[in-house]
Design brief:
The chain has 505 residues and is α+β, with helices and mostly antiparallel strands. The chain has 4 domains: 49 residues; 61 residues; 223 residues, 2-Layer Sandwich (Nucleotidyltransferase, domain 5), CATH 3.30.420.10; 90 residues, no CATH class. 35% of the residues lie in helices and 12% in strands. The chain has 17 helices and 12 strands. The strands form 4 sheets. Strands 3, 4, 5, 6, 7 and 12 form a 6-stranded mixed β-sheet that branches. Strands 1-2 form a two-stranded antiparallel ribbon. Strands 8-9 form a two-stranded antiparallel ribbon. A hairpin with a 3-residue loop joins strand 4 and strand 5. GO terms for molecular function: nucleic acid binding. It comes from Pisolithus microcarpus 441. InterPro entries: RNaseH_sf (IPR036397).
């Protein structure tokens, strides 16, 4: 426009000036007409200037429209975690949305992907944050403060202690206990090794080419063991007898490491301790896992109890004469009804089933009758609330029974099995696996295991696991790590580094 107006002012005609301007910048008559129109509009209104398509708003993506971006972001967030660029295409394809934003045709997938970036999304791997579980749940905190810590503090005066003096680890006798009766705590745990687990980082020469890798984690082998700060892995003094269990977990293999396997493992450990370590008192420390805290099938429980008198029992497996569970034609465990155990109130047994001679002989009394015998008025109480209020103890029959001492203090099968032979059992608080120092032992053994050649053969897997557990982290090293760990002289993360440099045979 400026060139055209200069030419016109300098004596050229209106039409020739426009034609010469268009020709000068490489265009034809169409542009000369546009120049005359723009100039006429500008002469009539000095604010009326044409907008260039080569810069500014004309080159901005539609995703810079804040209203459109906000609406797309709200829609994508409503779809959950796994959104796709195609969701933008589908959403903008709706007639009302297309009309609102004056979209004449659908956008391409490439444009949708760019718009995903404009909405703040990135195609990448989601990063895991800090692990959060039920650490601060009321029941977990109560167990930790009221049961676990008092039990540990009661044992601590009779445990051996260690301190670091002049950079050396010094073992001290526990105060208030002679050498013949000090307490040894044995930590139990299971860990799984996979056939295809190997080191990911190493020095790679530039000439090395990628090699095909097996798919998946491969076959697995679970190892279960006990370890203590005093003796390391639980073995006989000559190291010929071991309590380590290697288990091929899974359907169609060895099954699963159930409560029965835990009991047998504990019995194996108690046999070695009774034979070789009678001069110590031993305490087993187990994780608070469902397989560890299982109760007897017929133990006292308010779960599913009816409020009134009726024929009622709990489902229990059918066992044959050889002590094995009987399976039905479909391969599932056969179940039968059995009466639950009787309770205790004020130090005396309380029958939960009506005795012989009663008109309801053999029937379950019901929660109402049981609570009435204990002095509660349950006339207007429901059997169980849909959702009991937090902290409530008397809102329904089930909640009252749930808080009765004989319903709370039901001994676990593992506890009763061990206590019958003079061994105490303590359960770690739920979700606090870091309290079990055997995790450090597993970690170090796996570090060594990953350096062995990878193999899909079960025989090689088992041989590598045994070699890693025995040579990579022997009992003495485990004990040394535990002493340092429980002595709080080093951070747990430093144990593996120190073990690398430890000269312990």
């Amino acid at each position: 426009m400026q060139y055209f107006l200069h030419a016109y002012v300098n004596g050229d005609t209106w039409t020739n000036a426009a034609l010469n301007t268009a020709k000068f910048i490489g265009h034809r008559k169409y542009l000369s007409r546009k120049v005359r129109g723009w100039s006429t509009a500008f002469i009539l209104d000095r604010e009326d200037l044409p907008v260039s398509k080569y810069g500014g708003a004309w080159t901005k993506s539609r995703i810079h429209d804040e209203d459109l971006k906000s609406e797309l972001l709200t829609h994508l967030q409503s779809l959950g975690k796994y959104v796709t660029a195609a969701a933008i295409i589908d959403y903008l394809g709706q007639p009302d949305v297309a009309k609102r934003y004056r979209l004449k045709k659908a956008i391409s997938l490439a444009t949708a992907e760019r718009w995903m970036s404009g909405c703040g999304f990135r195609w990448t791997m989601a990063h895991g944050g800090q692990y959060v579980d039920g650490h601060e749940r009321d029941d977990v905190v109560t167990y930790q403060q009221s049961i676990f810590l008092p039990a540990w503090y009661a044992l601590e005066p009779r445990m051996w202690r260690w301190s670091v003096i002049g950079g050396e680890l010094v073992e001290e006798q526990a105060q208030g206990a002679d050498s013949q009766s000090h307490i040894v705590t044995w930590f139990h745990d299971e860990s799984t090794f996979y056939a295809h687990d190997h080191r990911k980082k190493r020095w790679i020469h530039g000439s090395e080419t990628p090699t095909p890798q097996p798919k998946g984690e491969g076959s697995s082998l679970m190892a279960a063991d006990f370890v203590s700060a005093d003796y390391g892995w639980l073995r006989s003094p000559d190291r010929n007898e071991s309590v380590r269990v290697l288990f091929h977990a899974g359907k169609g293999r060895d099954g699963y490491f159930s409560n029965d396997e835990i009991i047998r493992h504990a019995e194996k450990a108690m046999a070695i301790l009774e034979r070789y370590y009678q001069h110590d008192d031993h305490v087993f420390i187990f994780d608070n896992a469902p397989t560890h805290v299982k109760r007897a099938d017929c133990s006292v429980s308010a779960r599913n109890m009816p409020k009134g008198c009726k024929e009622w029992g709990i489902d229990v497996p059918v066992w044959d004469a050889n002590g094995k569970i009987v399976l039905g034609p479909d391969g599932r465990t056969l179940m039968t009804k059995a009466c639950i155990s009787n309770g205790f109130f004020n130090g005396s047994p309380q029958e939960f089933y009506w005795p012989e001679g009663h008109k309801h002989a053999g029937k379950f009394k019901g929660m109402a009758q049981i609570l009435t015998e204990r002095g509660y008025d349950v006339t207007n109480l429901k059997a169980q609330c849909k959702q009991c209020a937090s902290g409530a103890t008397t809102c329904c029959c089930w909640r009252i029974l749930f808080n009765q001492p004989d319903f709370i203090n039901v001994e676990m099968i593992l506890e009763s099995t061990c206590s019958a032979r003079g061994f105490q059992v303590i359960y770690l608080p739920k979700f606090h696996c870091e309290l079990n120092f055997i995790e450090q032992c597993w970690g170090y053994a796996k570090r060594i295991y990953r350096c062995y050649p990878m193999s899909s053969k079960d025989a090689d897997l088992e041989a590598n696991v045994i070699k890693a557990l025995d040579s990579g982290l022997n009992g003495a090293q485990a004990a040394w790590a535990a002493k340092k760990y429980h002595g709080h002289r080093v951070l747990p993360s430093a144990i593996l580094e120190e073990l690398d440099n430890a000269k312990v045979n």
